[in-house]
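User: Show me an example of a complex going from sequences to structure tokens.

Assistant: Sure. Here are the input components:
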Amino acid sequence: MTLPDGSERRFAAPLTGAELAAAIGPGLAKAAVAIKLDGRPRDLATVIDRDAATAVVTLNQPEGLEILRHDAAHVMAEAVKELYPETQVTFGPATETGFYYDFARATPFTPEDLERIEGRMREIVGRDEPIAREEWERDKAAAFFESIGETYKAEWIKEIPADEAISLYRQGDFVDLCAGPHLPSTGRLGQAFKLMSVAGAYWRGDAKNAQLQRIHGTAWATQKELDQYLFRLEEAERRDHRKIGPQLDLFHLGEEAVGSIFWHPKGWTLFRTVEAYMRARLDRAGYQEVKGPQLLDRSLWEATGHWDNFRDNMFIAQSRDDRVLAVKPMNCPGHVLIFGNRLRSYRELPMRLAEFGSCHRNEPSGALHGIMRVRGFTQDDAHIFCTEQQITEESIAFCRLLLGIYKDFGFADVGIKFATRPEQSIGSDAIWAHAEQSLQNAVKAAGLDYTLAPGEGAFYGPKLEFHLRDALGRDWQCGTLQLDFNMPERLGATYVGEDGGRHVPVMLHRAILGSMERFIGILIEHYAGRFPLWLAPVQAVVATITEEAGPYAAEVAEVCAGAGLRAVVDSGNDTINYKVREHSLARIPLMLVVGKREVESRTVALRRLGGNAQQALALAEAIDTLKIEAAVPSANS
RNA sequence: GCCCCGAUAGCUCAGCGGUAGAGCACCCGCUUCGUAAGCGGUAGGUCGUCUGUUCAAAUCAGACUCGGGGCACCA
């Protein structure tokens, strides 16, 4: 046997995984939950009868935890079958944080049922039932599941490739079709699990199939990890933009405009700050801002292919003379029309047309989520028209711009996915090869790591997806860069090349923030509403201690405004304690407190959010400092 | 769109068949205060909407609307 550290062990006779672990050490034998044979996870009971690369899997490894979670799904299924024998079990895998199992049952599970099931699961763990693997002959297995009324399982067996063994796992009276591996017994699951919710899910993920009931749970190796996970969920809830947004008076959502946002003055200030920053960055990067029409004629959408494929997601309107128009769901057709409005020269390329494009998509009601997924939103969209030779250079420049912008917003951890040609696509092999190569060169030349997402590109071209990681470790896909060899041609956009002939330009679709609304939602959650100074809608509150400081407070606010700081006065009849509390809860970054002393000495007492110290500063000095601190980052550009 | 859960004052929530409650916020007084809630008072709700059951419905049932958790969707 070869062990992970490269050492070798010789055994005279075949032995089980458990025996192997015991031979290495008693501590390992106790911690072992599975083994790996030539890289493949196997049960501890597996008999090793040949030379192999082996490794003992414990709960400290991701594979071990995955096995534990998969086991939790089985234990839950066993509990459900004991409590509700008429239920069919269908499919139950491990997930990132736990597990789920999809059940087919006429009556819905209630929250009380979940409590019962969880209780029974704890009993099953207490029973410590041995878990045993059995290999069955295919037809027998199918007949067996039919006979016990598990028709979904019987159907599933038919899908398993012919060269794969049909394995069943037995624990107590419960038998499940499963590839494994599993823990040696139910007791090893431990008690660090919790059922979270019940939800609908379609059989095999297809909305045309029957809807099953999915029970979600979370499971961890230790109680401590479970507690930490639950705490993270609470933290996410505390940061929820749907709660913080209205609380900080940034926006509200209402029945009168489902899927659209009512931006309040403070929220809109934030929006405009983000927009102004982006506009400045794009201007410097050689983009030209445009504004396309909101409503476009049906014939255009027919030409782009939207009318046939995506009409359900578009808002359709009608003019007085019965022309049918659609509210634009995206900006690219408008940009192609601007490009193609006259014949272009190669000298004009690359042409980068940018737009804070207001788009509407008639999303299914179930897809809506706060300001993150809405029906009316604004893209920081741009389309770069260029030659094939310019693709790499433009892509590199885009990656640099994007990373610099993310950094300014406080996101340093960015993941990149490279999505290649999907099964259904248009364009020749040569063009695809060239397009993929160009994009790949660009990421490499920019010195960036990426993971491959084979077959996940757009039908018209490969794409890069940029995911940023927030303060809670969650990933958000925001930026994208897509190559398109198709739409300019469809809409008849051409340029005259050096050779005097007409050519179709390549189009790069690109966005950095994605949707302004969604990005602001991400910012709210990332910062838990405590925005960096340059983004804070209200940067400073000038608060009086007594009424007589009112005129001076107004003067301080005036000076702030003159310095470009967003400041408001609070000269209300409240104690300073009350004001400090209120403005702290409102996450105002700076408080400039003025009382008798400050009026007389023309100073301010500066208090920063999160601190409890005050700093007495001369007014002019304070403003100079804060002005620098509040500067919009323009970093490395 | 589909499944489950929810909706009581601006906010957070109690009440769960028998005449709508609390705290905070708003408004009005008093207080003029030195860094996370000073004191008092007024006002505020056809209990999401509609239909039904009942002598009686915020409370029970159904439908609808909106919201939440998922699934599907995300050009």
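The lines above are the inputs; the final block is the predicted structure for all two components together. The longest strand of chain A covers residues 376-386.
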